[in-house]
Write a structure and sequence with these properties.
5-stranded antiparallel beta sheet; phosphatase activity; Beta-Lactamase; 24 helices; 6-stranded antiparallel beta sheet; alpha+beta; 5 domains
């Protein structure tokens, strides 16, 4: 059993870790308090210094003035001090109001209304954070201090400081609020990865991203709805990195001074990055001397530039420190007039937006080299703007900038043009000296043969070994003409490239003779015509297939046309019905390949009635013709039941919807009763009949009725019209009136005007309608016309006389 002393020691031992942890927490809190107090004192001291400088008072008086201003404004000393530093231009005015014993609260009102429109807490936090971060040991500590003292009070949850590499890459120099896994995954971002940090680095300006952005960045998977602001961190005219701040939700509405202070924090990060990277001071005399030696060794005209900074440490211009011997001033000035002068003073047109100065400034800021083979460069020559094209290269070295600018003269442009022509045309040139055996190939020729640029060129006499065996005869004839007959020659061969592919090529060459006629060299060229060859092969195959398809299409159209003409003759034998004249016309489409599905029909039914119908199948070709035959014959069979037209169309709709391959068609169906002289009719999406009476033409009412095949349960409205002796009724398809540039109502009105007037009989009327039709849709046309005859002394005439006596 343990003694009491032993138990007491055990209890004390178990309590030691808890006591130690509490002590550590207390000391950590004290450290934070000391840091915060030191930061606040620094802000207050800076504000007192401003008052001393602006008002010319002692430090003690400045302390009392600051306390008095804070009391009148209802602010703490540190908050008012931060406002004074942000609004330094108006401090003197505000302070003078207090010194002049303004009414109580006047300073507070002035501060709120005009001179300190920003949040005091925001300004105070940011100023305090500047002081704390300035004392941090490294960039990681700076990131942690910024988040804790300045950004967290603004609602931010994380911050990252990125260091920019010379190649455009980004390195995570410090972060806070992100997980260790995120920091490991994003410790390095290669160039050209489209992150918000990369965008701020390129644009050299703040980038704001709202929630839901798809751009990849650190911690994006944890806070997909969060917002971010990324600011470039610049010092001495160089962008050394970026500061990225993350919020868990939308960015709070920051005042203008708050955004200004965020930029100040980014600048503070730049100084820390500069310290981590090591001093990159302006180019020293030794560095300039080294750059001058490097420039003198370059073959292109080169300028050595060093940055010129303004009083605030920002880049204002570049000074030309050295030019190499290849440099020639476009304005003809000697080098001593250029060296030592500011760049924008020597070449003011370089300051144009997006021009040369912007490129140099960006290279100096980011360290990313710039190179282009063709760039317009404008200079002043005798007070006139002279623009040339030049190959430009810009690099940042040892605190300075190397600028190479090679003006493209006619020889250079022609050489570049020839090179591009050879590349685009797949052409490679060669020269073979038959005396020395030296062979010269252009770069394109090595690629055409499938050989590396270091491989030895192949003599013409060994060409057969590189070509397809079947081309040996053509190559022998080519060499015999060229080398023995000494005449220009050409041939088409199939080169076997090193990778096993076959390239169709054309070889053209001509002999070079000396003064006495001896063959000394051969000049020539190869051209890769593989694409042309395979295009011709594909074109020939396409032509054969097209001819076969055209033959099949013509055969189908011929069969469809024969089927259509067999069922739909251009005219129909008249129906033998006393007192009634029935005529029909069918005009097929003008283009033989547009065989349509229009139909008409007129037949005497078993009950004595007369079935009159027209219809139009959607589409053209053999399918439309067979659909027309099916519906026409189906309607005949259904009409034999004696059903009314509305029921006939309902049944025909079932046939079109269920018993066919979903045929869509319009139709007009009528049954005429000779005893009552009444025509009962119905329509399925078709134009209604036209009635000619007493020299006037009118269109019957548009009864409701959906086109056939659209819905299985469609219902159709039915109408009736009683014909009088001399009346003519027309039923037609839309091929008679339809025009692409005219509405249906206008086309129908023109038909009514054409139909009006006297016609000897219904056949003449139908012929006149076809003759004067101005339809332009190349569609079939069907017309059915019936006329109730008027015969003196007949029963019909007597009936009409009786009708004439009725009111």
């Amino acid at each position: 059993m343990d003694s009491p002393a032993t138990a007491e020691r055990a209890e004390q031992s178990s309590a030691d870790p808890a006591r130690l942890a509490a002590t550590v927490d207390r000391l950590r809190a004290q450290v934070h308090q000391v840091r915060a107090a030191a930061a606040e004192r620094a802000v207050v001291d800076l504000a007192k210094g401003v008052l001393v400088e602006r008002l010319g008072i002692s430090p003690a008086q400045a302390a009392r003035q600051l306390a008095r201003l804070a009391e009148q404004a209802g602010l703490s000393r540190v908050e008012l001090a931060a406002d004074i530093l942000d609004q330094a231009d108006t401090v003197e005015q505000i302070a003078r109001q207090t010194v002049d014993q303004s009414p109580p609260g006047a300073v507070a009102v002035a501060a709120r209304n005009g001179h300190a429109s920003v949040s005091r807490s925001v300004a105070g936090w940011l100023r305090a954070a500047e002081s704390v971060a300035a004392d941090a040991a490294d960039t990681q500590a700076v990131a942690e201090s910024l988040l804790e003292h300045a950004l967290a009070p603004l609602g931010a949850c994380a911050a990252a400081v990125w260091a920019a590499g010379a190649d455009g890459s980004l390195r995570l120099a410090g972060s806070a609020g992100f997980t260790d896994e995120d920091a490991r995954r994003w410790h390095y971002v290669p160039p050209d990865v489209p992150t918000a940090a990369r965008r701020a680095l390129v644009e050299r300006g703040p980038v704001w991203t709202e929630g839901g952005s798809t751009a990849p960045t650190i911690g994006c998977h944890q806070r997909p709805e969060g917002a971010r602001v990324v600011l470039p961190a610049a010092a001495g005219g160089r962008v050394l990195g970026v500061l990225e701040v993350c919020w868990p939700g939308p960015v709070p509405a920051l005042p203008a001074a708050g955004g200004k202070q965020l930029g100040a924090l980014a600048e503070l990060c730049a100084h820390t990055l500069d310290a981590d990277r090591g001093p990159a001071a302006p180019a020293s005399a030794e560095a300039v001397s080294e750059l001058a030696g490097l420039a003198d060794g370059l073959l292109d005209p080169t300028l050595v530039l060093v940055p010129l900074l303004d009083a605030d440490g920002w880049l204002a211009d570049f000074r030309v420190e050295h030019v190499n011997p290849r440099f020639r001033d476009p304005a003809g000035r000697p080098p001593e007039r250029i060296v030592g002068a500011p760049l924008l003073e020597a070449y003011p047109l370089a300051a144009q937006a997006g021009g040369l100065f912007d490129k140099i400034q960006r290279v100096h800021a980011t360290g990313e080299p710039f190179h282009t083979e063709r760039m317009p460069v404008a200079t002043l020559v005798d007070n006139a703007v002279h623009t040339v094209e030049a190959a430009v290269g810009i690099s940042r070295l040892s605190g300075g900038v190397l600028l190479t600018c090679r003006v493209l003269d006619d020889t250079t442009r022609l050489a570049a043009l020839l090179q591009h022509t050879q590349r685009l045309g797949g052409i490679g040139g060669f020269e073979e000296n038959l005396v020395s055996g030296e062979i010269t190939w252009s770069g394109q020729l090595f690629e055409l043969h499938g050989l590396p640029p270091t491989a030895p060129p192949i003599p013409l006499r060994q060409l057969a070994a590189r070509a397809h065996p079947d081309d040996a005869t053509a190559i022998g004839r080519f060499l015999r003409t060229l080398l023995y007959h000494r005449r220009p020659a050409s041939t088409a061969i199939r080169l076997r490239a090193a990778e096993g592919a076959t390239r169709h090529s054309r070889v053209i060459a001509e002999p070079v003779l000396d003064d006495v006629g001896n063959l000394v060299a051969v000049l020539g060229a190869y051209q890769d015509v593989s694409a042309q060859h395979w295009t011709e092969v594909a074109l020939a195959a396409t032509r054969d297939q097209l001819a076969h398809t055209e033959q099949e299409s013509a055969e189908r159209n011929r069969l469809a046309l024969q089927l259509q003409r067999a069922i739909m003759p251009s005219a129909q034998d008249p129906i033998d019905v006393p007192g009634l004249r029935v005529a029909a016309r069918y005009r097929p489409a003008e283009k033989g390949h547009l065989v349509g599905g229009d139909w008409y029909d007129s037949v005497v039914l078993p009950g004595g009635g007369i079935l009159l119908s027209v219809g139009d199948i959607a589409g053209h070709g053999i399918d439309a013709a067979t659909g027309m035959v099916l519906l026409r014959n189906a309607l005949r069979g259904l009409a034999a039941t004696g059903a009314a037209p509305d029921q006939l169309l309902a049944w025909l709709n079932v046939v079109a919807h269920n018993l066919t391959e979903r045929v869509l068609a319009t139709a007009l169906c009528g049954v005429y009763d000779p005893d009552t002289r009444v025509l009962t009719w119905a329509r399925a999406g078709h134009l209604p009949p036209v009635l000619l009476r007493d020299g006037r033409a009118t269109s019957l009412s548009f009864l409701s009725g959906m086109l056939l095949g659209a819905r299985a349960d469609a219902r159709y409205e039915q109408g009736q019209v009683e014909l009088r002796p001399g009346d003519t009724l027309l039923m037609y398809t839309d091929g008679l009136i339809e025009r692409r540039d005219c509405a249906v109502d206008d086309s129908l009105a023109r038909l009514l005007r054409t139909a009006e007037g006297q016609a000897s009989d219904v056949d003449d009327l139908l012929d006149r309608l076809l003759t004067h039709s101005n339809a332009d849709t190349d569609d079939d046309t069907c017309i059915v016309g019936i006329r109730l005859l008027e015969r003196p002394g007949s029963a019909l005439a007597a009936d009409r006389d009786g009708e004439g006596s009725r009111p």
